[in-house]
From TrEMBL:
Domain (Gfo/Idh/MocA-like oxidoreductase bacterial type C-terminal) ranges: 202-453
Protein name (record): Alpha-N-acetylgalactosaminidase
Lineage of source species: Bacteria, Pseudomonadati, Planctomycetota, Planctomycetia, Pirellulales
NCBIfam families linked: TAT_signal_seq
Listed SUPFAM superfamilies: Glyceraldehyde-3-phosphate dehydrogenase-like, C-terminal domain, NAD(P)-binding Rossmann-fold domains
Length: 456
């Protein structure tokens, strides 16, 4: 999907202005909002509540009413519902089975913040149930899942926002970065480096009793059957209150069975902005080279040989050959953020700063009026949910559409495959398949565990 298929400037302005003026969406003939919604605010439900699930819910209460929650951990379900009640004065109906949410006719949209391995199944079934979808990043566990979601979005006509909030929030630093590039402030791009942090391995994590209140079989869902594992030490800070070393809450990001490690976690943010800036959102790389990497366990034929420790990469340097033979470097070293280098200069951007001489030069040579809005495709929304709701009104796709997200995420998926197999991969971005490597192509899809297939 190209930029032209996102919100038009006019329709975006009409809807966003209505939201800004009254805090609600004015009704339209093509609105999908429930007819009995107070003030015609959309009715939402959140599936997967821990950490980011509450974060996106909390941000969205300004624009939507939450009627239902679903989580396989009853402890989380109860705690988050108490937070919602304290903030809005009303708790949501709580379910352990997300399908109960999808059965309800009063739900306009679902927000999905489950572990990655659940994203595709819930997203597809939600769209088929007539719901618009906001799903956290990274959207998929495999490239085949991305293709399936694209197919169902097209089939159902549902609006689908991916939670790559850097496209909307963070004081618009990333939008300004792209505007700088489009204005020619660094000349022609010669190299882009995405620093996405390294990770740590883990000690041996033993199988232990499943915590009370957690439906472990449901948590695993489409993933392979496995024992619940944890060590006694608890995590502190963000995501705290759970075991520091586990294959469940929070730490699931370090396991290929449920996620893609740092490559997909932070890569889904910074590789997204880099790909957008390069104008490669409709294509992608043609070659992925694993220059260096470190895995915390031994691998054979692309699979970890043990199941009791984290298995995603701890260090890496990946080179993706982008259109125009521009190298996109994805590295665990250096500052977290994106360094753009061109024929006339370079600058760095992350969530905390936008720095470099081209940025300093803006004091005397500002960007043209409307340059940031031109990148965004219209007035920049207050937050990512506001953009989603504006798209729900217009029935056009939002700023983080599934097509551009999947294209950039293919780079991250391919990087992980290259690391797992220990070799360079040639990629055909038109056919969306690995060239001349049957073993590598076998990693583009993954079977769901029996009983958890997608209900089509």
């Amino acid at each position: 999907m190209t930029n032209s298929s996102r919100l038009s400037r006019r329709s975006f302005l009409q809807v966003t202005s209505a939201m800004t003026a009254g805090g609600v969406i004015a009704g339209t003939s093509n609105s999908s909002f429930a007819q009995d919604s107070p003030n015609e605010r959309p009715v939402f439900a959140t599936i997967g509540l821990r950490n980011q699930g509450w974060t996106i819910t909390d941000k969205s209460t300004k624009f939507a009413d939450f009627a239902a929650f679903a989580d396989v951990d009853s402890n989380v379900l109860g705690a988050i519902n108490e937070k919602l009640k304290a903030k809005t004065g009303k708790a949501a109906d709580g379910y352990s089975d997300y399908r109960k949410v999808l059965e309800r006719d009063d739900i306009d949209a679902v927000m999905i913040a489950t572990p990655d391995h659940w994203h595709t199944k819930i997203s597809v079934e939600a769209m088929l149930a007539g719901k618009d979808v906001y799903c956290e990043k990274p959207l998929t566990l495999t490239i085949a899942e991305g293709k399936l979601i694209e197919k169902v979005v097209k089939q159902t006509g549902r609006v689908f926002q991916v939670g790559t909030m850097q496209r909307t929030e963070n004081e618009h630093r990333f939008l300004k970065a792209i505007a700088l590039i489009r204005a020619g402030r660094i000349g022609e791009i010669r190299k882009v480096t995405c620093g996405i942090n390294g990770a740590t391995g883990s000690p041996v994590i033993p199988a232990v009793d499943i915590p009370e209140g957690l439906d472990w079989d449901a948590w695993l869902g489409p993933a392979p059957e496995a024992s619940y594992r944890a060590l006694p030490e608890m995590r502190t800070g963000y995501g705290g209150g759970v075991p520091l070393y586990t294959n469940c809450h929070y730490a699931w990001r370090n396991w290929y069975e449920y996620s893609g490690g740092q490559m997909n976690d932070w890569g889904a943010h910074h590789v997204d902005i880099a790909t957008w800036a390069l104008g490669a959102s409709d294509t992608g790389p043609n070659r992925i080279t694993p220059v260096s990497y470190s895995l915390p366990v031994d691998y054979k034929n692309g699979y970890p040989t043990v199941d009791d420790r984290y298995n995603s990469p701890t260090k890496f340097e990946i080179h993706a050959n982008m259109p125009g033979d521009i190298p996109l470097v994805i590295t665990s070293e250096g500052d977290n953020g994106i360094l753009f280098e061109g024929t006339k200069g370079r600058f760095f951007v992350n969530r905390g700063r936008l720095s470099g001489k081209p940025v300093e030069d803006l004091e005397n040579n500002p960007l043209p009026e409307g340059a940031v809005e031109e990148v965004y495709g219209g007035p920049v929304s207050e937050n990512h949910t506001a953009n989603f709701i504006a798209a729900m009104q217009s029935r056009e796709q939002p700023i983080s559409d599934v097509w551009s997200h999947n294209r950039m995420l293919e780079t991250c998926h391919l990087a992980n495959i290259a690391i797992r197999l220990g070799r360079e991969l040639k990629w055909d971005p038109a056919k969306r398949e690995i060239v001349g490597d049957a073993e590598a192509n076998s990693f583009l899809a993954r079977e769901s565990r029996s009983g958890f297939e997608i209900d089509m």
